[in-house]
Amino acid sequence: MAAELEDHNNKEQFSTYQAMRIFFFDFIHVAPPCSAPEVLRNSPEITNANSFLDVNQKSLQHAKFANIFGIGDCLGSPNKKTAAALYSQMRTLSKNIPRFLERKPLLETYNCYSSCPLIVSFRHVILAEFTLEGPHETLPVNQAKPRYISFLLTRYILPFIYWKLGVKGHWLGPSTIRKILHFGVSKE
């Protein structure tokens, strides 16, 4: 499918080999294509058909070479590529790599968790947290509803987590906080 965007006319034109359709819009968000880094695209022996690192989505260990583990946007796993996903992957790898080096079975699994704050107004955010199975919320409230508390978390807490904890490798995702806020009853 090919697309043509005419900004001055607020019109987007999609064409396929069968037909052409024109859509009018007031606002449009166009995401760039997602692709693996060039070094992976040029390494078919370690990548999948889409040129992403071929890993087991649960253990994050390479499907063919046991001494290779993957993390982040280069993974050929179905999770959404976000910083929140990376931190949960770090938790999995922080336990699986030492076990691999000790020649023990890999027990920690990554559940394809990801999160994305959706800013819907100046003071309200939908804090979307999810796995492949559906919502996977940390707060004990329906996070699909725009909330001021989600705005406060996005505005003040998440930047702190990113810059002071995440970048330094000290944040391994919200699973512990989720267990506390849900009184130990968690899907993890």
What does this structure look like?
InterPro entries: FAD/NAD-bd_sf, Sulphide_quinone_reductase. GO terms for molecular function: FAD binding; sulfide:quinone oxidoreductase activity. It is a single chain. With 188 residues, the chain is α+β, with helices and mostly antiparallel strands. Helix content is 26%, strand content 16%. The protein contains 4 helices and 6 strands, in the order βββααβββαα.
Features of this protein?
4 helices, alpha+beta, three-stranded antiparallel β-sheet, flat, 3 domains, sulfide:quinone oxidoreductase activity
SSE run: EEEHHEEEHH
- Please give the domain count: 3
> What percent of the residues sit in helical stretches (DSSP H or I)?
25-40%
Oligomeric state of the chains in view: single chain
Number of strands: 6
The tally of helices reads 4
**Structural class determined from secondary elements:** alpha+beta
Range of strand content: 15-25%
Radius of gyration: 20 Å
> What's the mean pLDDT score?
89
* Principal-axes shape call: flat
Q: Give a quick account of the main beta sheet: strands, pairing sense, barrel closure.
A: 3 strands, antiparallel
**Contiguous runs where pLDDT drops below 50 for at least 5 residues:** none
The strand order across the widest sheet is: 1-2-3
Cα distance spanning the termini? 39 Å
GO cellular component, one term: mitochondrion
InterPro entries: FAD/NAD-bd_sf (IPR036188), Sulphide_quinone_reductase (IPR015904)
GO molecular function: FAD binding; sulfide:quinone oxidoreductase activity
GO biological process, one term: sulfide oxidation, using sulfide:quinone oxidoreductase
